[in-house]
Amino acid sequence: MLVQLSQSISEAVSVLQKCCTDEGLSHPNPDQNFSEESDSFRSNIEASKAADKIVAASSQLIALLQAPSLSLLRAACGHITSAALRVCLELSVVEILGDAGSDGLHVTKIAQRSGIVPDKLGRLLRYLSNQHIFSQVAPDTYANNRISTILHSKKSVKQLLESSDQKHDGSMEQSFPSLIELFASDLHLSSGYLTEYLKDPVMGNSEEPNHAPFNKAFQVDVSLFDWYNQPEQAARLRRFLTAMQGTDRLQADDGLLKAIEWAELPSGSIIVDVGGGWGNASLPVAVQNPHLRFVIQDKVDLVAAGQAAWETQLGQPVSSDRVSFQVHNFFASQPITGASIFILKHVLHAFSNSYAVKILKNLRAAAAPSSQLLIIDSIIPPFCSVQDNESPFLEYDPVAEMVYISDLTMMLQLNAKERTLSELEYILEISGWKVANIPPRHYNNLLTPVVAIPV
Ligand SMILES: C[S@@+](CC[C@H](N)C(=O)[O-])C[C@H]1O[C@@H](n2cnc3c(N)ncnc32)[C@H](O)[C@@H]1O
């Protein structure tokens, strides 16, 4: 097994190198920080698959050779990694190290700028560096590396210190750090209550959105979204909406631009982005299709913030006949009837079946026979852990890993779930819709667009 696994790694390394040489692409170099250029091999499917094979075989080697006791200890201490990452994000450690460059900075100086006791910060950085997040370049001296650099917000330390509550500003640069901060803070806390939640005879059996581990952890009675809607949670809401854009870092593209023939829709066609937040889903479509009109609906009043986010990203003012923001609760009847396209991106996965069906039925009642419903969520891939005889190692599917994380995130925060295709087809069918098209998904893409039409 050891020899087979190491041979598989060697073969896949040869494939990766050949693809890079033939196509003029690069693969990561440990001394280089992450950039689109450093990881350009991912644009080539064969190279990308070879890299996944190397990761699969290497993890299997680790599982085989590492003492089981250490494997379990590392798994059970994931919360320490998460907590240490949160410290680095909230106290601008990545930006401080960004200023220091590749020579790095002694922990006393990092601590001075971030306001933490040097000994305690040093112990966190030592732990993270041992996991390849940050590098220890000299004794007690740390530098960013290819993993930690993607947590850089592209803001200066001064900016972050002066306006920490404005940090999550909806910019693309901030979006991935916001996503990781969200996981390492609120989600971390919710996950600590999972066992109590599952043992609770009421909450553990419930379909209600306010019966999630989050509700136990934060001691609130309302659902996560209703909580975000409270004025005192404004900063959390901004972080959440910024983080939603950060999911783009986890995938090649969300398939939305190719899911519908947007350019073929008649001029003035109305696209309704239901539960659209700031309109992250619609924005790229709008950029390429000035002939379409967009209505971004959300329960939260995001009119001013949404407009500002679009203007920042488009670099120009947007007129209300091109895009309008509307406060609308998708559990009430849909005010826009006969739209060309209704978009539901990252919405259905945030609700249990009985609530998802209510949303779908309201859209069905407002649909014209020609309306289409574009659902963009992850679809849980068929699970298969069976090894074939030819291959000594288990397939590693990075998409499955991300979808499982997303599925459990939905359980932790909203008592909701990601669905398999047949689970999605079931809730569509009982709501008067049917799947019309599932455009091919890009390899390694987390999200699967599904186009449904009225039955
Ligand atoms: C996960 S976010 C997705 C946002 C956006 N579609 C995207 O992909 O970036 C879900 C959104 O649904 C909104 N939402 C939650 N409950 C709602 C309701 N009852 N009616 C309308 N919007 C709601 C939230 O405020 C949030 O902006």
TrEMBL record:
UniProt entry tagged with the keyword Transferase: yes
Highest taxon of source: Eukaryota
A GO biological-process term: methylation
Assigned keywords, A-Z: Methyltransferase, S-adenosyl-L-methionine, Transferase
Record InterPro entries: COMT-like (IPR016461), COMT_C (IPR001077), COMT_dimerisation (IPR012967), SAM-dependent_MTases_sf (IPR029063), WH-like_DNA-bd_sf (IPR036388), WH_DNA-bd_sf (IPR036390)
PROSITE patterns xrefs: SAM_OMT_II
Keyword tRNA-binding annotated: no
Protein name, entry field: O-methyltransferase-domain-containing protein
Organism: Gymnopilus junonius
